[in-house]
């Protein structure tokens, strides 16, 4: 029973901590343990317990932190539990205590990696250090910083983290995962066909609660009433679907009609108001009645409303027809008047035309009468050109310029005569 | 840090099997060191039916340094300061009295016990302690009044 000083204890800490692979305090305990096995400082089962003079026990590490955290002089350090001044620490605690602590069942710290092991706490260090295949190890390739489960490490010390293309699915996976992913895929494929897999009845969507193994499914399906009903349900579903569709169509159409009716109603209200204004002057009693009835009909049930509205429409139609008749009368009237005016105008124009025709005829007569002697003269002149001077002197009133030019240019005369002669024939 | 592991453990225990009349929650999910404590006034005390909110803050050196407890809800009590801080004077929380082996559960139960039985000799509010000792009836009345006013509405 030798005791060491607190300073010696602190000095020990550095050496003790190194060979620990696992932090025993973070282990998940499976079995329950006595509260007395719990360190009062870290609230975990003792890890390398040490004993104070007052017989209180702590983890070595916890006591170390207690000493370093202790504010006062190290010589005045008191037990964290009972505050007895303590100078010496005993490293030997009863074997019984150590055994009880080491016997607590814990899970392997590599549980998250898949290690299912449960073991006494005393074995954890060696399990993880030597046996646990799920411990994450550094990749043997120093350039790769990924970790691999110990059991997956390749014996040749290769890096297994290079991505490889999967032969089945074209995905890129790391070599270390290849086997498991292939296995998983095979499993998935197998599950699709395995006769032992529990499968719900195919009529489960219709409410069949039966779930049996695939092998027994066929026998169940022969007796399942819901499967027999299946086609009927299908047909019903299809019918329901089509009905829904038609209902939707009808709703749309209905909306359109309702819109139209609303429009008609508004125009009706307007027209009835206009009608009332119109009829208020000739018959004072009638339009208010109609209007009130129309108001009533709007408030009343739709049947009544439609009845009165048809009446309304009919009356409106009647009045409109009358108006159209009046308009057509007026139009025919106007037509007659216009045609009369046209006739009158035409007659007058015809008379004028006759007048002018007569005038033109008389003028032609005169011209012919005037031209006749000249023609005769021309014929005679053609025979005897020396006589032109005498013939020229007579008709001086009608052709002044020719008579003025006549004596100087006796050469041109026959041509002029032929010109006028041609004019005469034209007329 | 060693302290986090122990605090998490104690919190888990308190949440899993809370002591009578005490509910604890983290004030902020990411911070283990500040807790909100909801404490029911103990039966038979003038604080009965009141719901008191306490703030428990743990030092990073926990469990080697004591936590501090303060009342967020105003309370008429000789051992709780009558100011905004509402700090509570618990004997076991004093630095020289604190032991690393003490648990938060014990602290909270002790605090609740103090509501039932104030310690006027250890008071921070001398006037209330005086009244508690000499005019118990009046103290009960005021404490009840304050409880109704501040601790029931919330």
From TrEMBL, chain A:
Region annotated Disordered sits at 272-302, 377-427
Keyword hit for Zinc-finger = yes
Q: Which residues form the TRAF-type domain?
A: 190-225
Ranges of biased composition (kind: Polar residues): 272-284
**Where do the ZnF regions (TRAF-type) fall?**
190-225
For this UniProt record, the keywords arranged alphabetically read as follows: Coiled coil, Metal-binding, Zinc, Zinc-finger
Provide an example Pfam family for this protein.
zf-TRAF
Q: Which one of the record's GO molecular function terms can you name?
A: zinc ion binding
Where does this protein have compositionally biased stretches of type Low complexity? 292-302, 391-410
Highest taxon of source: Eukaryota
Protein's name according to its UniProt entry: TRAF-like signal transducer
UniProtKB/TrEMBL annotation, chain B:
A Pfam family it matches: UQ_con
Which keywords, in A-to-Z order, does the entry hold? Answer: ATP-binding, Nucleotide-binding, Transferase, Ubl conjugation pathway
Give all residue intervals belonging to the UBC core domain.
Answer: 2-152
InterPro entries in alphabetical order:
Ub_conjugating_enzyme, UBC, UBQ-conjugating_enzyme/RWD
Supply the EC number(s).
2.3.2.23
Top EC group? transferase
Q: Key word Transferase present in the record?
A: yes
The reply to whether Transferase figures as a keyword in the UniProt entry is yes
Q: Which segment of the chain is annotated as a signal peptide?
A: none
| Recorded GO MF terms | ATP binding; ubiquitin conjugating enzyme activity
| Domain of life where this protein originates | Eukaryota
User: What's the name of the protein?
Assistant: E2 ubiquitin-conjugating enzyme
Q: Which organism is it from?
A: Aspergillus sclerotiicarbonarius (strain CBS 121057 / IBT 28362)
């Amino acid at each position: 029973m030798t005791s060491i000083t607190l300073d010696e204890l602190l000095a020990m800490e550095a050496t003790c901590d190194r060979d620990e692979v696992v932090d025993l305090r973070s282990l998940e305990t499976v079995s329950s343990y006595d509260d007395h096995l719990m360190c009062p400082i870290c609230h975990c089962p003792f890890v390398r317990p040490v004993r104070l003079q007052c017989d209180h026990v702590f983890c070595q590490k916890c006591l170390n932190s207690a000493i370093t955290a202790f504010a006062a002089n190290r010589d005045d350090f008191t037990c964290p539990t009972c505050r007895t001044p303590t100078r010496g620490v005993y490293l030997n605690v009863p074997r019984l205590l150590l055994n009880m602590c080491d016997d607590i069942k814990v899970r392997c710290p590599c549980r998250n990696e898949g290690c299912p092991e449960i073991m006494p706490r005393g074995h954890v260090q060696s399990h993880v250090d030597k046996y646990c295949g799920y411990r994450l190890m550094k990749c043997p390739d120093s350039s790769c910083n990924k970790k691999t489960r110990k059991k997956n490490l390749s014996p040749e010390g290769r890096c297994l983290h290079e991505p490889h293309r999967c032969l089945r699915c074209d995905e890129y996976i790391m070599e270390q995962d290849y086997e498991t992913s292939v296995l998983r895929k095979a499993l998935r494929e197998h599950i699709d066909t395995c006769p032992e897999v529990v499968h719900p009845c195919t009529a489960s969507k219709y409410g069949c609660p039966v779930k049996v193994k695939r092998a027994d499914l066929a026998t169940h399906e022969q007796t399942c009433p819901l499967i027999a009903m299946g086609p009927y349900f299908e047909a019903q579903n299809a019918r329901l679907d089509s009905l829904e569709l038609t209902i939707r169509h009808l709703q749309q159409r209905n909306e359109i009609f309702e819109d139209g009716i609303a429009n008609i109603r508004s125009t009706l209200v307007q027209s009835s108001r206009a009608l009332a204004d119109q009829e208020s002057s000739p018959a004072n009693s009638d339009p208010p009645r109609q209007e009130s009835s129309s108001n009533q009909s709007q408030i009343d049930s739709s049947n009544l409303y439609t009845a009165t509205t048809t009446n309304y429409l009919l009356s409106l139609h009647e009045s409109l027809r009358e108006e159209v008749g009046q308009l057509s009368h007026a139009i025919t009237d106007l037509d007659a008047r216009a045609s009369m005016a046209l006739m009158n105008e035409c007659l007058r124009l015809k008379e004028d035309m006759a007048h002018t025709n007569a005038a033109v005829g008389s003028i032609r007569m005169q011209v012919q009468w005037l031209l006749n002697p000249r023609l005769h003269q021309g014929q005679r002149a053609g025979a005897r050109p020396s006589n032109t001077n005498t013939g020229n002197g007579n008709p001086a009133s009608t052709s002044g310029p020719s008579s003025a030019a006549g004596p100087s240019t006796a050469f041109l005369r026959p041509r002029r005569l032929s010109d006028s002669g041609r004019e005469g024939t034209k007329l | 840090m060693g302290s986090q592991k122990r605090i998490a453990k104690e919190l888990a225990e308190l949440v899993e099997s809370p002591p009578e009349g005490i509910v604890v929650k983290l004030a902020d999910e990411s911070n283990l060191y500040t807790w909100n404590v909801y404490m029911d006034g103990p039966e038979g005390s003038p604080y009965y039916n009141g719901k008191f909110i306490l703030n428990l803050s743990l030092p990073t050196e926990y469990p080697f340094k004591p936590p501090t407890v303060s009342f967020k809800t105003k309370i008429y009590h000789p051992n709780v300061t009558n100011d905004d801080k509402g700090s509570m004077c618990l004997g076991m929380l004093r630095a020289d009295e604190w032991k690393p082996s003490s648990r938060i559960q014990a602290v909270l139960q002790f605090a609740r016990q103090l509501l039932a039985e104030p310690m006027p000799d250890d008071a921070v509010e001398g006037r209330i302690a005086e009244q508690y000792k000499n005019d118990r009836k009046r103290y009960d009345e005021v404490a009840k009044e304050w409880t109704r006013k501040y601790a029931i509405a919330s």
